[in-house]
Task: structure prediction
Amino acid sequence: MGEDDLIQQRKDKLERLRTAGIDPYPARFERTHTSEQALALLGDASANDTSVTVAGRITAMRQMGKASFLDLQDGSGRIQVYVKQESVGVQPYALLRDIDLGDFLGVRGTLFRTKTGEPTLEAQTLTVLVKALRPPPEKWHGLHDVEVRYRQRYLDLLANPEVRNIFIARSRVVAAVRRFLDARGYLEVETPILQSTAGGAAARPFVTYHNALDRQLHLRIALELYLKRLVVGGFEKVYELGRIFRNEGVSTKYNPEFTMLESYEAYADYHRLMAMVEEMISGIAGEVTGSPRVPYGDTEIDFSPPWPRIPLRDAILERSGVDFAAHRDAPSLRDAASRAGVQAEPSWGRGKIIDELLTLHVEPHLLQPTFLIDYPIELSPLAKRKPDNPDLVERFEFFICGREVGNAYTELNDPIDQRGRFEEQARLRAAGDEETELADEDFLIALEHGMPPAGGLGVGIDRLVMALTGASSIREVILFPALREAQR
Result:
């Protein structure tokens, strides 16, 4: 039987309910307990024969003449319902003929255990709450079609409990991040999503147009430059959890919109931020999963501090054989990188080539939480130089499960140096490299008013959730990921 036939059958049942004087979509229903709360009463001897009222979606039905068993699922779990004709009445019992899997039902009754020990609610009254016009996915035995799972996430959540658990964990991660930073005196703020200049990262923005203002705007690609304006304005500890938009590729690691945490702290440097990251993420792992050691495939990820701190130069040299410090210009480094398997485009600057060496040779091997530190200045136009080596900056990225999860540095607060670096980025863009930082003149003016020494941190929330839940694709941790247009 085709889906259209099944839908028509349900519509016919809907009309029979209405003909019988039953509203299949009542505006309200008062329940006294969730399924979890109701089942908990069975362990309380004083609660025997207590009447409870529950509500939920029907996920299983077993009809046996004048008695039936139903499974009701609500947000807290599942409860079995026993319906006897002699208890609810002939007419109400007959209504079960017009009830299907996926419908919502309200039930009042008393709790008992079956002969097999199954906690069960014996129904006294039944109330139709919702008549579902479409059948549930694969009769509740799991939904595995990836295309359907992502496009119709509500079906994925209904059919796959493990998917619900991932998004429950995600919510707990975000809440734990807020608690951690709030406890350290940070102030949560909000900055513009629509920006005149898409700054703070080397990424291609989405472009839109504001009719009333008669101007082109960009969806933000980072939170950084506006948060640093607030540090200039006297807020010494600020953070934002917000959506970021980058008009780039889609893969298991990338989604065009994603969630980022960025925090900025006056008088902190990248060393202090490394210690803060270890404390924050190991604590979140323990809070969300129950342990700082989290299963991942056939192994486990240990978030316990301290994490290794490896200079980027050493990591790339060990894995690729290329010492970027020995190649002072882009053509020389391009030749060395090509021998290591990196096919660098002619427009790439030295920083882009180094980043590709990192991505190809180093990143996949960083399974356990690891800091890579001290990046070349070409890769980090917003970071402060190292006092003992002006070719490098005080920056780290941290990696978990072979993916970059976060980035931080001691912030560049010299407005003259910052302007010069933006100008160098502009030269690279003019030469054909689109993945460069855009200059933001208003930000430079703010910096000229004076920003205290500060450390800034960015953490990809989606990738952090991936590491904590064992997800292999970013689409598994974003409720509604970006997809190609469906083929009709």
